[in-house]
Amino acid sequence: MFIYAADIHLTDKQPINRNTPVYPACVDKFRKILEYGKQYAAPVILGGDLFENPCPSYELFNRVLSALGTVPVDVYAIYGNHDVQYGQISGQNNALSALVQTGRIKLLGSEGIVIGKNVVYGVSYRKELYTDFSFLNIRDPKNTVVVTHQFMSDKKLPFNHVEVKDFKTDVKLVLCAHLHDPFSARNASGTVFLNPGCITRLNRNEAYIDPKCVLVTGTGIKYLPLGFPKAEFNESEVKKASFVKSVDEAKVEVQDIEQYIQESSADEKVKELALKLIKEAQDAY
After folding, report:
1. Could you tell me which of 14, 48, 150, 280 has the fewest CB atoms within 10 Å of its CB?
2. Mean pLDDT lowest among 185-199, 224-238, 241-255
3. Separate counts of helices (H) and strands (E) for the chain
């Protein structure tokens, strides 16, 4: 068994539209994840974006280093897009690489690690999308777990991504990240794709997410709460985010989004902002 968590986005910078403090609450959540590992005598696997910024402050880095040193548990990680400096995963100019050098975290890669009866592989972030795991030397799919930071979703989104239904694999489990919205789905081969969602809520459209990590066992998955209060955001910002979220849930094609917004009953200022936010989101991905 092992603990899985992703998109922790550790930061000491307070978002302008969030009322409740982010720091040091995000570090406390990270420590709680490690404590779950100790409680269940299970290694912890991080699915990318441990940090919000690849070069965080020394204070934040030292707090994370201290947490890793005081909670005796094996920790493995892959790189997320927020962990790397200018897309250079192999370089050492980022906090995650520095943690690896200390020996407190081990990188999870294409060679895999054996946990119980399963072999667990890691696929760090890359800009190029892929629709199978042919680049991994998988010998026993039914006892294989893959942790990936590719942009994958259970539904069609107005961004460059891969839908679960289009992903060709017959491995036992794919643990996803990058998309902050939690989901659980299966492809045609019966492979389970699971994303528990982000841990630290930095954006107004993440206010509804209940941060949690998961315990993966030989027989199933158990969600583990982190036991922290809900994040509170500026009320007007939450309303704007709700409208943008409704656009996403409409499952419209990219070229139809503008028309969908224009034909909505929202006032003109909200429409204008929604179009601006969607464009920013598209540019980000």
Report:
1. 280
2. 241-255
3. 6, 13
Q: What is the DSSP letter of 271?
A: H
Which residues neighbour 13 within 8 Å (Cβ) at sequence distance 6 or greater? 22, 23, 52, 53
Q: Residue 194: which of 209, 216, 211, 210 has the closest Cα?
A: 216
Q: CA 71, CA 39: separation in Å to the nearest integer?
A: 10
User: What Cα–Cα distance (Å) separates residue 92 from each residue in 79, 184, 219?
Assistant: 12, 34, 38
pLDDT band at 203 (very low <50, low <70, confident <90, very high): confident
Do the beta carbons of residue 110 and residue 116 sit within 8 Å? no
Q: Is the peptide bond before 24 cis (omega within 30 degrees of 0)?
A: yes
CB atoms within 10 A of CB 100: 16
Q: Using one digit for the tens of pLDDT, what is the confidence trace for 120-138?
A: 999 999 989 999 999 999 9
Q: At what angle do helices 95-102 and 58-70 cross, to 10 degrees?
A: 40
Cβ-proximal residues to 114 (8 Å cutoff; 6+ apart), any chain: 120
Distance in angstroms (rounded) separating the CA atoms of residues 63 and 60: 5
* pLDDT attached to residue 40: 97
- pLDDT at res. 269: 83
Answer whether 143's CB lies under 8 Å from 15's CB.
Answer: no
In degrees rounded to 5, what are phi and psi of residue 250?
-70, -15
Confirm if 36 and 222 have CB atoms less than 8 A apart.
no
pTM score above 0.70? yes
Q: Is the pLDDT of residue 176 over 70?
A: yes
Contact 93, 54 (CB under 8 A): yes
